[in-house]
Amino acid sequence: MSQTWTDQTAPSLDDFARLAEEAFAALPDLFRQAAGDVVIRIDDFADEETLRDLEIEDPFELTGLYSGVHIGERDSMGPAPEPSRVFLYRRPILDEWCERGDVGLAEIIAHVLIHEIGHHLGLDDDQIHAIEDDDD
Questions:
Q1: What ranges make up the beta strands (E) of the chain?
Q2: Domain range for residue 73?
Q3: Which CATH number fits the domain that encloses residue 33?
Q4: pLDDT in tens, 59-79
Q5: Is 58:92 a contact under the CB 8 Å cutoff?
Q6: What does DSSP assign to residue 122?
Q7: Which residues form a coiled coil (predicted)?
Q8: In a domain, 67, yes or no
Q9: What pTM was computed for the model?
């Protein structure tokens, strides 16, 4: 019997939030503590202003984004000027998951979350990739 997939639905924003919370909870204590006050938000896509600011034409190209002042640049005498947020974009992540086919959705969500938290901690892309390569 072949499966028609007509009884399946894509994971919702709430499903993504749950997977992101599970991924965050699974991080090492020191990494989680360092991330501290970061807010995780799930949206279908980045908004038009964000895409324009990043000069991204195809909204499917952006799976996540860190927004805020990273820890290393904050004024130690006061709060951050805005809350630190990690945005995870559901539709581009689903698209990547479908295209790859070799990794679970929860793993991709965790990867994007860790990458964006790395930016919160002041790491650049090369440093984050080096850390991820060390884990392989």
A1: 39-43, 64-67, 85-89
A2: 13-135
A3: 3.30.2010.20
A4: 999 999 988 776 666 555 555
A5: no
A6: T
A7: none
A8: yes
A9: 0.81
